[in-house]
Amino acid sequence: MAVKAFSNEWAKAFKDEVNKSSVYKTAGKGWKWTVGLVVEAEPANHFPEAKGIVMDLFDGEARDIKVGAASDAQKCDFVITAPYTRWKEVATNQLDATKGMLQGKLKLKGDLPTIVRYTKASQEMTLCTTRIPVEWPDEK
Amino acid sequence: MARRKVKAKQGGAAGSGSAKPSGSTPRLDVDSRALVGYDDDEPSAFASMLGGLIEANVRSHREKERDFESLKARVGIWVTDIDEGVTLDFKGGKLVVHNGLKPRRKLTIRTDADTVMSLSNLKIGLFGLPVYYDEVGRGVALKLMTGKLKIEGLLSNVMTLNTVTRIFSVQ
User: B94 is in which domain, residue-wise?
Assistant: First the structure.
């Protein structure tokens, strides 16, 4: 069943997908930092308020993924920021997250060597989001 | 045409702390000066990312710092699947990053975004040579053999490529 984009149900489904992934479990070994995703508001696309996704990832496991205020996500060790439409492109496999970062479509804040070292883990996390059936607010 | 003043961004990579001196080997004074400058008023995201990555690497690894101090070469990187590139102008202790490919390059690497990431994940082994026998290395070697990774100027600049790889590698 589809879940609302960037809702608590979506966060739970995302966490489950990450923890089901053997690829992530291996690629994320040694990771010990929090990751925040900031989804910027796009009122024209029925996404009126920015949201923050706070991911507590540790050693190949998603310990917790929560949806809350953008300001919570901004406090994480690594912060990736993009407007709603960009995140939708990532979650529907239309935009590769690595390419998105190189093109500046996704803005990254955090220690670059660390994130580059975990490219495979971040790619797998992106794939996890594509496996979740999502109800998008602009498609209602 | 007048040349633009190169802009320096100190501590380009957010959160990348400088390593503290340790041991008896004299440490080059990279902590107090800008290592990376950008030739363009608005560096592309790719230029900022590569510049930031190299700066963080050099500031935190003494062996990369030594390579950085000695390297004098212009290296182009063109990412085929985003149609963007940069020129890294290493000037012996200083790097100027240009948007796009500029003339007089010793080496030009043309490949996709994933392979650029793989190149920066190559491990460095004995004698400072990149490791091509582990999973990442084999992937890079395969792309080189199948033409998905092209390196212009490779044959006459192998040593330069190895030095750039060492500076670029996060491993």
Answer: 34-168
